[in-house]
Amino acid sequence: MESEYDQKDIVVIDNGTDTIKVGISGEDYPRLIYDNKCGSHSVQNDNDNPNNKPQLLFGQDLKKVIKEKKLNVQLSNPIKDGKIDNVESMKEFWQYILEDGLQISELQQVNLLIIDQVKNTKEYKSKLAEVFFDYLKVQSVLFMNSATLSLFSTGLVSGLSIELGHAVNTVVPIYQGFPIMHALEFSHISGAEITQCLENDLKTYEISLDKFSEEEKQWIIKDIKETMCYIAGDYEMQINSEDNFTEEERSYELPDEQVIHITPKIRYHSSEALFSPAVLNKSGFSLPQMIVNSIQRCDKELRQELVSNMVLGGGTSMFQGLISRLQDDICQIYPGGAMRSEFNFVADFQRKYSAWIGGSMLGSLKTFQSLAINKQEYEENPEGKMSLIHKRTF
Ligand SMILES: Nc1ncnc2c1ncn2[C@@H]1O[C@H](COP(=O)(O)OP(=O)(O)OP(=O)(O)O)[C@@H](O)[C@H]1O
Ligand SMILES: [Mg+2]
């Protein structure tokens, strides 16, 4: 732990479908990164638990139990598609994050910045507000969308935010800090789908991981994706040629020291789903088309600013070759034609955590206090809670 929690600090939590990123405003990176996983196991004949309520486990505690295989735990994901799916589990998870992870004993002193998907509704946020104020009893909460914060992490307040995460990809223009919602494009062909496709590809090429547990297997496939997969420069040409780019074949060492060979086709096939959903036998717009659609739905005067400030964020934006291919493909489909060099992408090396970093920056500004909803004003006017959420969630 770098420092103790100070009342003036803001706790920044980015609730992702793959991981939950947690830390303190003003710091460069999240201090803690939790898998979006909850383990539940039944406790019987416990005097302290007369209703036999299942015990929930998170973070390191959960990892330990899985590793030791002592308890029979049922795993679930409290966040699905960028939304809290199980509020009961998630409220205990947040409590665990604050008390156990950040070692904060007085939750009444906590100021929170909660980051979630841009398309989550105000009604949804008002349900979360109840959890934070009525259950956790924190001092203040600011709800902020990850698209704006991703852009903000690069120092921009206007531009096109392109967030490629685990369950959701969003493309949305931001003007002076506010998302232009009628120009929002989103797709579920994101990190999770690419991992699933890679798993199928490995099977097709008879690379078996069956000797590993399901948990280990998923970790390995994700690791292969993150360390070896890339976006093809010219997919059609490459996929139709023989695998003669021998220099691009990579060896991957499995945890039991067996070495497997990952051919170029395996390395660029699954990630192509971003450019062609047909790779997954799905329909929908490609990422370049989503970008063009989003820009075209804005006023002409704004388009040049968007094209010059296209900010990439989220883990799935880390694939090598992504920017160059986006420039090529967008150039080809942009109405009226445009030069490749006109499409300027901002891709910070820390973009895997871009939304959290933007939140950390916002939390360290004085404006946080004027934007956040505090417990007192939330409680003083029960009828006005919804209008408070409407006015003060972003
Ligand atoms: N170097 C990398 N190359 C490719 N993909 C990566 C890389 N690093 C992480 N990812 C993928 O990015 C995804 C996680 O991204 P991110 O943390 O932005 O998602 P999230 O915030 O948890 O989910 P969401 O925003 O969709 O709810 C995972 O699918 C992960 O495998
Ligand atoms: Mg995210």
TrEMBL record:
Name the InterPro entries on file: Actin (IPR004000), ATPase_NBD (IPR043129)
Write one Pfam family the protein is assigned to: Actin
One GO cellular component this record assigns the protein to is: actin cytoskeleton
Annotated signal sequence range:
none
Instruction: Tell me what reaction this enzyme catalyses.
Output: ATP + H2O = ADP + phosphate + H(+)
Query: What family is it from?
Result: Belongs to the actin family.
UniProt name for this protein: Actin 6-1 (Actin-related protein)
Organism expressing this protein natively: Paramecium tetraurelia
